[in-house]
Specification:
alpha/beta; 6 helices; six-stranded parallel β-sheet; two-stranded antiparallel sheet; about 210 residues; binds S-adenosylmethionine; globular; about 30% helix
């Protein structure tokens, strides 16, 4: 979806047990909302397995990495670093500047030529993050200046970054897909043609491959 540019989400810090669900949801949200890759701390193996399993079943491309060297990843990243924090500049004030910095501006043809594509690292914390991260970040960004969650902050930031385009992304190598419908929970084999597919809920029963 991003051509030459990679959007990477870094989950900074993980407390096994306490953070398991949150870390998993950071990965699932990164995948669902247009990032290309997530990096978890190396003690978050269970979360990595869950996100990989979802990618295997519901499609990608999306990569999950476990790394020990969180500080070095941020320090050495060759691209733009966004740190999501309640203390940061308001997302609505800086989103355009971030898009320009990574070359996502002008993609709709209305702003002229897009800037050169650059990779983007989006960092979300768990417990307290080191001050060096605030200093290294090209942008410290607040999704409101109220305390909430890394999952919520990430979701809003990615949607703002991509201006909603991520909602229409196509998934590759999926085993299954959900049929969007007004009422119901239908999952079919990914390659399956379904009557009334463009008009969800009005076709024949698709003999679902899976229901949860
Ligand atoms: C539950 S908070 C913990 C914050 C921690 N007490 C601190 O002072 O850094 C976990 C993460 O959620 C994200 N977060 C929380 N509120 C946010 C906000 N308003 N805007 C952007 N990110 C936010 C940040 O990435 C933060 O590191």
């Amino acid at each position: 979806m991003h051509d030459a540019r990679e959007v990477v989400v870094l989950r900074y810090g993980h407390r096994p047990g306490r953070d398991d669900r949150m870390t998993t949801h950071v990965g699932l949200t990164a995948r669902a909302l247009g990032a290309d890759r997530v990096i978890f701390p190396d003690n978050a193996g269970q979360s990595a397995e869950t996100v990989r399993d979802i990618t295997d079943r519901f499609g990608g491309p999306f990569a999950v990495e476990l790394r020990e060297d969180q500080k070095a990843i941020v320090r050495d990243f060759e691209g733009i670093v966004v740190h999501l924090t309640m203390y940061g500049e308001r997302v609505q004030d800086v989103e355009e500047e971030v898009r320009e910095a990574v070359g996502l501006d002008g993609s709709d043809g209305t702003d002229g030529e897009a800037s050169t594509p650059r990779d983007l690292l989006v960092v979300v914390g768990g417990e307290k993050v080191p001050w060096a991260l605030y200093e290294r970040a090209d942008f410290n960004v607040g999704v409101t200046n109220q305390p909430h969650s890394e999952v919520a902050g990430l979701a809003v930031f990615l949607d703002r970054l991509f201006e909603g385009a991520e909602l229409d992304r196509e998934w590759e190598n999926a085993d299954r897909r959900v049929l969007p419908e007004a009422t119901g929970k239908t999952v079919v084999d990914a390659g399956e043609e379904v009557a009334g597919d463009d008009d969800a809920g009005t076709g024949d029963d698709p003999a679902p491959a899976d229901r949860d």
